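From the methods appendix. Each design record in this collection lists the tokenized structure first, followed by the designed amino acid sequence. Records were kept in a plain field format so they could be parsed without special tools. The example shown here is representative of the layout used throughout.

RECORD:
FOLD TOKENS (603 positions):
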């Protein structure tokens, strides 16, 4: 335990690989656990919501089917009354017929109304109203106030208005103030009415039969199908007016929520919207009456609360997993750190002298044992590579020095001095002076430190000095041309003495001692990877075999026969800038040779 506490103290205040491993391990696991928990809660809530929607849709379908069934029965009952000959015979009179005529026909009407009263559970009463003032109901007017002016009521007048095709329609909500006060179950209470018109021989409206629906029975039917008694089911008409609601204060109110207009455009569906100050799930179904929509509103918090036990259990599991992760991470980190600390102590003893030696020791883990056993071998290999690299650099410097010394050889110097003597004897003072200046500039340029980079314009000036001397040797028969379309490349830096050996190679192998006229063209262009310097001559060129042999000599250091200049240049470019750069040669027999030097653009 003490060892564990000491390890934790060192672990907390020192930045080690073990602390990093533990932190990242814990953070990664915690992130995965939280992500898993969030996804589980989201998916479970979504599945619960979808299940509620499915079950509520089924409940709503059942409720809508039950309501539609009762409305269809009501429609059939009203159709029986509206098409009854006795009802039509009474209403076709301009005024209410005499009592004898009424008694003759109302006996038939009473038989029909008795069956309606027996079998229709949603119907509270049926009013039979004629435009001639005739009034009747299910109990033969015994509960009606005889002096009541039915024809003056807006809902009665609406029932008399001609309609196109819609013979079964809603009259909305109105108060039943036409009953006697002794009928306490109906007097003054609101009712929902549906009507069917009675028409004469010429299809004119002569009256209507109106069914008053019992709102309490309709509400009780909705409550039986409500989602766990947590929401509410109600009816709205084509004007978005609530016509049936378990809360009587809501009846007659206009339902104004987001998306309410969409329910009239679709047969059924659901959406979410704020209602009564909180978000609700709205599910809607059509009914048998055109324009009536049955709506179920379920609070979303009632749905999401069903996932609360799952959230609580998941949180407990997450806490437990986090604690287990911490304990397991500490144990694993501690067990790994012990052999690693032992290996580090052993490595600390290395380097006290020139010998690299690790004593064989069992570090408990195979991987750490491999590190210990391979470490000395690795150090030996590193030491060998250091020695090889050191010797390689020395050899390279010697080769570069030899290559630079070869650029100004005694033969070239002798020829130049002999040329200078000839010019002086001939009295060409200006030409002699130019030769001396060119030669001095070449010597001064060659004496600089060999490893430095120089500007391209400086290297080109050195080449011009060399070509001036060589052109005098060839009696001005060499035509020299420079093509540099982008003058911004002149300040770019390249290795010193990179171009002059190539030009010398062109003259030596391209023209030799041939005194005929020749041409040398130097061009510098910008390419994708940097600069491309092309040095082309119109000399004798090479055939395919000679060209292949030259290309092999550029890449293999043991084949330098006669082309040490090109090999050194190619080797220097690759050494400084990598294998993507270097020299490429193209040549055609009796047509000339082109040497391309690819170097990076260094500003």
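DESIGN:
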């Amino acid at each position: 335990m003490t060892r564990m506490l000491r390890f934790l103290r060192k672990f907390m205040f020192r930045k080690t690989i073990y602390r990093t491993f533990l932190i990242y391990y814990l953070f990664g696991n915690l992130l995965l656990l939280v992500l898993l928990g969030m996804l589980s809660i989201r998916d479970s809530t979504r599945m619960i919501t979808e299940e509620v929607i499915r079950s509520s849709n089924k409940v709503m379908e059942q409720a809508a089917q039950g309501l539609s069934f009762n409305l269809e029965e009501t429609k059939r009952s009203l159709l029986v009354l509206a098409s009854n000959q006795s009802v039509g015979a009474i209403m076709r009179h301009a005024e209410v017929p005499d009592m004898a005529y009424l008694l003759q026909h109302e006996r038939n009407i009473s038989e029909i109304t008795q069956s309606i009263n027996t079998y229709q559970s949603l119907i509270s009463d049926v009013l039979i109203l004629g435009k001639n003032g005739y009034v009747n109901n299910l109990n033969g007017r015994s509960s009606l106030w005889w002096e009541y002016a039915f024809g003056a009521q807006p809902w009665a007048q609406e029932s008399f208005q001609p309609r196109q095709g819609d013979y079964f329609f809603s009259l909305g909500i109105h108060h039943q103030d036409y009953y006697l006060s002794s009928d306490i179950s109906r007097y003054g209470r609101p009712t929902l009415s549906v009507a069917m018109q009675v028409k004469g021989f010429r299809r004119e409206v002569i009256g209507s039969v109106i069914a008053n629906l019992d709102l309490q029975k309709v509400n009780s039917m909705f409550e039986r199908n409500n989602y766990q008694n947590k929401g509410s089911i109600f009816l709205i008409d084509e004007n978005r007016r609530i016509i049936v609601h378990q809360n009587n204060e809501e009846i007659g109110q206009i339902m104004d929520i987001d998306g309410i207009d969409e329910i009239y455009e679709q047969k059924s569906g659901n959406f979410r919207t704020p209602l009564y100050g909180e978000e609700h799930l709205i599910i809607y179904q059509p009914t048998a009456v055109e324009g009536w929509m049955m709506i179920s509103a379920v609070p979303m918090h009632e749905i999401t609360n069903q996932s609360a036990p799952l959230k609580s259990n998941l949180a407990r599991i997450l806490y437990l997993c986090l604690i287990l992760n911490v304990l397991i991470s500490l144990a694993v980190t501690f067990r790994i750190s012990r052999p690693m600390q032992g290996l580090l102590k052993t490595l600390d003893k290395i380097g006290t002298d020139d010998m690299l030696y690790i004593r064989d020791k069992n570090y408990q883990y195979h991987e750490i044992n491999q590190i210990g056993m391979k470490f000395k071998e690795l150090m030996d290999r590193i030491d060998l590579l250091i020695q090889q690299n050191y010797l390689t650099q020395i050899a390279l410097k010697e080769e570069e020095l030899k290559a630079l010394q070869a650029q100004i050889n005694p033969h070239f110097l002798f020829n130049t001095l002999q040329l200078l003597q000839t010019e002086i004897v001939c009295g060409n003072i200006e030409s002699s002076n130019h030769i001396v200046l060119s030669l001095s500039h070449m010597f001064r340029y060659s004496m600089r430190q060999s490893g430095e980079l120089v500007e391209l314009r400086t290297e080109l000036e050195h080449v011009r000095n060399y070509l001036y001397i060589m052109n005098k040797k060839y009696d001005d028969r060499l035509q020299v041309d420079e093509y540099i379309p982008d003058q911004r490349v002149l300040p770019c830096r390249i290795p010193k003495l990179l171009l002059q050996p190539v030009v010398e190679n062109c003259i030596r192998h391209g023209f030799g001692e041939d005194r005929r006229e020749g041409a040398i063209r130097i061009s510098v262009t910008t390419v994708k990877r940097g600069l491309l310097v092309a040095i082309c001559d119109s000399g004798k060129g090479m055939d395919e075999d000679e060209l292949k042999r030259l290309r092999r000599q550029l890449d293999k250091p043991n084949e330098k026969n006669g082309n040490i200049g090109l090999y050194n240049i190619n080797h220097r470019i690759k050494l400084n800038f990598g294998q993507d750069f270097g020299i490429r040669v193209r040549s055609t027999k009796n047509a000339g040779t082109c040497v391309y030097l690819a170097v990076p653009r260094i500003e």
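APPENDIX NOTE: The CA atoms of residues 85 and 556 lie 122 Å apart.
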